[in-house]
Write a structure and sequence with these properties.
- The complex is a heterodimer.
- Chain A is built from 16 helices and nine strands.
- Chain A is of the alpha/beta class.
- In chain A, the strands form two sheets. In chain A, strands 1-4-5-6-7-8-9 form a seven-stranded parallel β-sheet. Chain A has a two-stranded antiparallel ribbon with strand order 2-3.
- Chain B is of the alpha/beta class.
- Chain B is built from ten helices and five strands.
- Chain B has helices spanning about 5-15, 20-30, 35-55, 60-80, 85-90, 110-120, 135-145, 160-170, 190-195, 205-220, and strands at about 95-100, 125, 145-150, 180, 200.
- Chain B has a five-stranded parallel β-sheet with strand order 2-1-3-4-5, with helices on both faces.
- Classes of the chains: A alpha/beta, B alpha/beta.
Chain lengths: ~325, ~220
Amino acid sequence: MKINMTNWAQTIIEAKEVKCLPVLFFPCLPLAGKGVIEVVNDGQAQFQTMKTVIETFPDMIGAMTGMDLTSEAEAFGSVVRFKDTEAPTVTMELVTGRESAENLQVPSLDKGRAKVFLQAAELAAKHFTDRPTFGGMLGPFSLTAVLMGLEKTLKAPKKDPATLHILLNKCVQYSIKYAQAFKAAGASGVLLAEPTAGLLSADWCDEYSSQYVKKIVDAVQDDEFFIVHHDCGRVTKLVNSMVSTGAKGYHFGNAVNMLDILPQIPGNFLVFGNIDPSRVLHEGTPEKVKQAILTLLEQMKPYPNFVLSSGCDIPPGVPIANLKAFFDALAEFNQK
Amino acid sequence: MEKQQILAKLQKAVEEMENDLAEEAANEAVAAGINPQEAISEGLAKGMQTLSQLFDDGDVFVPQLLLAAEAFEAAVDIITAAMSAEEKSQASQGKVLIHTVQGDIHDIGKNIVKTMLAASGFEIIDLGRDVAVEEVVKQAIEHKVDIIAGSALMTTTMPAQRDIISVLKEEGVRDQFKVMYGGAPVSQEWIEKIGADAYGETATEAIAKAIALMAEKRGA
């Protein structure tokens, strides 16, 4: 069922209660009786976990596929290491220089595990008719960094910008196809994770990330498809660059103070953030989680376009009690 | 060229992230017979300090630090080429073994800290990324380092930091080393929990902590 996402966002902004959408998938694997390896390789198993997430935490305002930031790179040919206790990681760089960048083929969606995530999104979109389903995908600069190596990619704007643009163009071609496929599968949007761009200066962020993210936004975003642009870096000075992409949602990590972020974003865009997934959700106690959330919610009172979320993907192993505290704290705040 | 001009050129090469300029200035420093330690501390390190301050202020970003580090290291290689291992050790503020813990392949933060430690006069042994716990301990003993510094960027790899402390204790060598950790999910609470000695939230803080640990170690 298609959901009008412009109306969906407006409803959230106008609601008296604060809504929440943590990037929550992996910690619920034990509740679903699944392991990481199974769900990132099997669309049906991934969908079952998405169901478990929503059944356990029905206040989630959307269903989200697992955030696996390696599937696009794997489709290009990168080798991925799988473990049942952590999200998959790419083991080594695929692109070593100009020649290999030029020779790199933009893969079809049949290659690699894109179909796993698309199937999960399709099943979820059919099942959850009361809330949108979001796919997860990697932003173009972050994907380039996975393909060429982080350090080399970060130095490339000075040392070899031409090779960087070659790769970015190939990544964005693939990303547009992938986002279009999520849309065709019935998803109502994607969370586009572009964390590596958070390491750049504003002018480099414009040139090597935002203009490419904008191509994806322009290709797929409309009233029925909503892009959430995620960057969990120290991006206080990059917000204008991020907003230049035209995405309708922006998601921030705990490296920033949300009070520095919200004033920079027009009130008709949703802004998500930013409970620390590691020090608070993973390492903290339920009481610490509750305090962090109540503090943030108090700060965000002047901003009706704020949506409570985790600062990044919540890693496997986060205690369920801490997640319950997350939702309980929000409910307590909303009842005041 | 005057000594002060060469030192200024070394500093400028790092600040402007120019490898070629750094190598040129380093060769000039060698030809002019400038003391290697002085060339580093009064030239190259000043450039790194400028950038590190601008980074802390949010006016310089990680790519610029990495590019500056590359220029710094290129020049250091030339300047110290003629020094013996003993000379390098004598001039050192302390010997640091640095690594990214087992299971973790994210090494940007580690590389930045490494360069800034070198810029502050520390002798560095870099084991790279995804280094086994036992290997860290073995290399620390073998190289007789003062400080073991490690980073973890994932919650799933943090336990390896605790394991290093455990193995040091099992080997009966815990007191020989100061142990400091950093990385996005690491916190002061974690450091206290696992019995490490210091936590560096930022690269600059890591350097300050390393200097303090050395003062503590030498004062002990």
